Amino acid sequence: MDLLQLWALVRRGWLLILAAAVAGVLLGAGLSYLQPRVYSATSTGYVVAGNSSSVNDALLGKSLAADKAETYLPLVGSRSVAENVAEALDVSIGDVSLQGANNGVIFTVTAKASTPELAREMADAGIRATSLAANELETMTVSGESSGDTVVKIVPVELALTPTSPVSPNWTRNLALGLALGLLAGFGAVVLRQSLDRRVRVAADVEEIVGASALGVIPAAKELTVTPITVGASGEASEALRKLRTNLRFVGVDKPLQSMVVTSPNEGEGKSTIAAHLALLMAGSGRQTILVDADLRRPRVAKLFGVDDAVGLSEVLVSSVGLNDALISVGSRLKILPCGQLPPNPSELVGSDRMQSIIAALSKDAIVIIDAPPLLPVTDAGLLTAASDGALLVLQHGSTRKEQVELAARNVETVNGRILGFALNRVPKKELGTAVYGYGGKPSRCASVHSREASIRPPHRRGHPSAPRRRRPRCRRSSLVRGSGWAWGQCSSPVLTERTPASP
């Protein structure tokens, strides 16, 4: 995982990471609050050895004193010293906490207690008790009696000061540790959630499953929920749909698409809305377009356009109504074949030879877009895909599961159908970049169709207003992720951008 992938992962799970960090800080604060206050004070002594009458004696005495100071350290924690301190201060021996240290001949005793005053008194009593213990040790003879004379002794030289603040709990350390543990736990939870998440979020994951490219990434937008839909809608979603329309032209380079099915693995993933808007855009680009509502179970096309569906595909399939009589014109280049009456045997009807002949007849002079039922609940979409040039698979970002995509692709493969590509629908705007390129912000496949931004616009050549112009192949930033801050790296295959005269 590189830095870009890490950053993208943090962006997705920042709320969880923040919550874990806050919880860690609160935990550190709670532990600090519950811990008893401990104060520390230090008394200082000096280890001396004999009387120095010469320089050599002074040097030898200092060396001896330093060696002795090292040997006196265990005395500070001895029971005899603790008993003397407890007796002097009238406290329990269990409350006595002393620690010794030396720096050459400088000898220190540090005491810890529950109050500042007790810590100071315990440090002073500790240095005195240690000095007495050291003197007794130095004057003891082989027989166990005291000689009364000592060459080395500890002399208290600086009494302890009353501490002004506790040394424990350490609020700064505890809060920092709580924050670090919270961030670590939050990031771990995000990584775990990501590894266990089987929902479709990244185009590359779907490409590996279906063996087809992402043709469009449609952001979640209110403009796609307005009914009836109209020509000339504007917004990010409309722009994304125009790119989807353009990318579909690249799918059929050798053999232009004449008929296509728009379906999804499950219901409610937006396939009817995509099909309707795609039909409008196809017609708006100058192509004769026919939108067929082949969802004979839950039709929506007529409602989306606000037209009557009393007569439609069902009646045409049973030959009770002529095909031309059932078509409804919406604008000059778009016709709609609504569902009609709901039949009791929709699978038999859409899988009949009559349905194949209808698709063939309609696709002679127009591109036919077929709104089909979802692939997983019923077999209708698979049968229609086999009778057309292929299927556009609509997947809902963050809802459709990978195993559902795999099963849907298998259903299409079973009937020898073709998946033209897929479109990620209802992608949150903040995840548009990661949805296309994955967590690293790089294209999953540099030459994939979804990266091609060919658009058809009126030319603007000075002096030649009607002459078409072809640009040299080049790579550029994908506008699918405009505003994300991520750009293309080195691209191994060109992206064609073509400008042709606008259709009349």
Please explain how this structure is put together.
The protein is of the alpha/beta class. It has 3 domains: 3-35 and 169-194, no CATH class; 39-158, 2-Layer Sandwich (Alpha-Beta Plaits); 201-455, Rossmann fold (3-Layer(aba) Sandwich), CATH 3.40.50.300. The chain has 17 helices and 14 strands. The chain has helices at residues 3-12, 14-34, 55-76, 79-89, 116-139, 171-196, 203-210, 236-251, 271-284, 301-305, 313-317, 323-326, 346-350, 353-362, 380-386, 402-414, 432-437, and strands spanning 39-49, 98-103, 106-113, 152-158, 214-219, 259-263, 289-293, 328-329, 334-337, 367-371, 391-396, 419-427, 469-470, 498-499. The strands form 3 sheets. The chain has an 8-stranded mixed sheet with strand order 5-12-11-6-10-7-9-8, with helices on both faces. A hairpin with a 4-residue loop joins strand 8 (328-329) and strand 9. The longest helix has 26 residues, at 171-196.
